[in-house]
Amino acid sequence: MVNIGCIMKYSKYSAVIIGSGIAGLYAALKIEQQLNLSDGILVITKSKFGESNSFYAQGGIVAVMKDNKADSTASHISDTIKAGAGLSEFNTVKFISEHSDAVIKDLLKFGVEFDRDENDNFCFTREAAHSVRRILHSGGDATGRMIEKALCKKVQENENIDIYEQTSAIELIVNSKDECRGVITFNDETQEYETIYSSAVILATGGIGQLYKYTTNPAGATGDGIALAYRAGALMQDMEFVQFHPTALAIDGEEKRFLISEAVRGEGAKLCDADGVEFMAKYDERKELAPRDIVTRANFNEMLKNNTDNVYLNATCIDSQKLFRRFPTISKKCMECGIDIAHDFIPVAPAAHYFMGGIKTNLNGETSLKGLYAIGETASTGLHGANRLASNSLLECVVCAYSVAQYLKSIELKTPKQIDEDIKSLIDRYSDEDVILDELDMGALKSKLKDIMWDNVGILRSEKTILAAMEELRKLRTEFPRAYKCLNREEYEFKNMLTVSLLIAYCALLRKESRGAHYRLDYPNTKEEAMHSFITREEGVPDFVK
Ligand code: FAD
Ligand code: SIN
Questions:
Q1: CA–CA gap between residue 489 and residue 47 (Å, rounded)
Q2: Which DSSP symbol is given to 276?
Q3: Which of 20, 223, 514, 541 is the 20 to 30 Å CA partner of 402?
Q4: pLDDT tens-digit profile of 306-333?
Q5: Which of 306, 333, 351 is the last residue of a domain?
Q6: Residue 529 contacts by C-beta under 8 Å, 6 or more apart in sequence?
Q7: Which pLDDT tens digit goes with each residue over 193-222?
């Protein structure tokens, strides 16, 4: 039994950004640049500053540069829409593509470097389903790390931006008029709660990979922002669309899988079985460069057919000097595992990688709740449709961070002063009483959830498997008897993982077709008309999804 603390601090900021990935950091910098905010800006992050999915991004960022004659926004828009399997929003795709040139140039001003050739021209690479080389990379295959480090430095140097580390957002403060007025946080080190008032709360909390047994995502990708926004009443979109990356390093049953970038295939590597027999031509004429959902299902199918835990990536056809220069992080990691990528096949298997669904937003980053904004992977802008095109995520993070800052410039940001009764009762849940809670075996609970999602709501799904998952998730909820207060960060995360898992399963059940990353064994065809799916706490939600 643990008696948990109930110290509640209070503060106010003109804008609060939750998350220190590329979306959150760039938003903080752009808001600071464009607005004169009397109560300042706060960036909250639940682990150490900069820890994020962004940090691990490898392949690169889409850059449709105006002076690159080989490329055009029309071509990028067309590739994005084709990969999105009919579900991408044309206006969103166009907006993001057309802002690519400006944001890349702006990133350079913030100290981000991209790899260049001996004549100082950008080196563009290619990834699956892109018709031209349009992807900028940095540090070879360390694009995320390089951008993240540069932006972290700028935010840390900026006196107008405060930073809270080890601090989780645990509840959004929404009043009776459905306006977001701030956020309640929990500091895992001090065990303190804090109520932060703000009329601009920007969720930049990233993805959901940790809901699945095998994932390329780091530990923090637990869908927190999505769960918080859902509980607060915001509209969710396309929750059934989870992207599985086809080539994560598969060794020793490791569940957190290191990514082998699609750019390795972009540079010529081939997928094959243990004997070196290539198989992609059987599945798609674009072979290794087919859209990600197709390559993932091909790998998965080969694994099922041959009863193996992985297929192989053969990069030995690439000049070894180029291989080590272009992919220093990947070759080093593989070497540590005893794989010399210039001579050995790399064992690879699919893993949960990216979430196309999330909090529905418009191009200003506005959600359905006034004062609540969402950007980056946690948002669903409609860019990616049913299947994200490689390297479009980092671009979306930056463009949407830029546009939310632009939008905030156009409205009056007054820090909320009045507290209505709804808000008071919400805060009281965390501050009024000392709650005594039993300790739970969180490792076992998390592992059960991840198995349920991987086995039943994964790369291939059916009504039978989804219903089984929902039943199991319901049982799991009874094993996690927490209403509001939890013991620690891990428990708050698990609460969110349960909420988001149920939402994914429920939306997967309702979509009776196969489209992009959502493949239903019992409904293998794609319907003629592409429709988004929506869900809110209030409408059409079974009572077990709380
Ligand atoms: P993140 O970078 O995930 O940041 C989320 C932040 O929110 C973190 O700081 C986290 O700690 C914080 N947070 C979460 N919940 C809370 C909470 N409750 N309270 C406080 N803080 C919270 N995309 C590309 O376009 N190109 C690539 O090459 C590429 N490679 C990838 C490689 C890997 C291995 C992975 C995992 C992803 C890759 N992606 C790539 C996808 C891309 O990296 C992500 O979609 C993108 O970085 C998401 O950025 P973000 O800022 O939205 O979220
Ligand atoms: C990769 O490098 O393969 C990941 C690229 C992406 O997720 O966009």
A1: 10
A2: -
A3: 223
A4: 999 999 999 999 999 999 999 999 999 9
A5: 351
A6: none
A7: 999 999 999 999 999 999 999 999 999 999
Q: Which ligand is nearest to the CA of 218?
A: 1
> For the whole prediction, is pTM greater than 0.85?
yes
Residue 9: Cβ within 10 Å count = 13
Give the type of residue at 45: T
Residue 8: φ, ψ to 5°: -120, 120
- 432-448 mean pLDDT: 88
Asked if 384 and 392 touch (Cβ cutoff 8 Å), the reply is yes
Q: What pLDDT does 429 receive?
A: 87
pLDDT of residue 545 exceeding 60, the answer is: no
Look up the domain containing 534 and give its range. Answer: 1-52+145-241+356-433+440-546
C-alpha angle with apex 193: 187 to 196, nearest 5 degrees?
105
Strand pairing class (379-380; 358-360)? parallel
Structural domain includes residue 93 = no
Residue 303 CA: distances (Å) to CA of 245, 261, 312, 347, 521: 15, 20, 10, 11, 17
How big is the chain, counted in residues? 546
Q: Answer yes or no: 292 catalytic.
A: yes
SS3 124: strand
Instruction: Kindly state whether residues 332 and 465 are assigned to the same domain.
Output: no
Closest ligand 1 atom number to CA of residue 54:
47
pLDDT value at position 546? Answer: 47
Q: Give the total number of structural domains in the chain.
A: 2
User: Quick check: is 192 in a domain?
Assistant: yes
- Write out the two tokens for 183: 């956020």
Residue 531 shares a structural domain with residue 457: yes
- Which residues surround ligand 1 with Cβ inside 6 Å? 18-24, 44-47, 51-54, 56-61, 143-144, 168-169, 204-207, 216-217, 220, 224-225, 259, 354, 376-378, 391-394, 397
Q: State the closest ligand 1 atom to the C-alpha of 396, by its place in the atom list counted from 1.
A: 25
The residue annotated as part of the active site, out of 145, 181, 257, 292, is 292
Q: Tell me how far CA of residue 230 lies from CA of 117, 226, 480, in angstroms.
A: 46, 6, 19
- Number of Cα atoms under 13 Å in the Cβ half of residue 95: 20
Whether 417 and 534 share a structural domain: yes
The predicted-structure confidence for 13-58, as pLDDT tens digits, reads as follows 999 999 999 999 999 999 999 878 889 999 999 999 999 999 999 9
Ligand nearest to the CA of 247: 2
> Which residue in 54, 46, 502 sits closest to 236, CA to CA?
502
Which residue has a Cα nearest atom 24 of ligand 1?
Answer: 391
Instruction: Give the mean model confidence (pLDDT) for residues 413-438.
Output: 78
Which is it for strands 193-197 and 8-12: parallel, antiparallel or unpaired? parallel
Q: How would you classify the pairing of strands 201-203 and 270-272?
A: unpaired
The answer as to whether 89 is a domain residue is: no
Mutate to test the pocket of ligand 2, among 146, 215, 245 (most ligand atoms within 8 A of CB): 245
Same domain (yes/no): 326, 371:
no
In 396-493, the DSSP E strands lie at 435-437
Judge if 375 and 497 occupy the same domain: yes
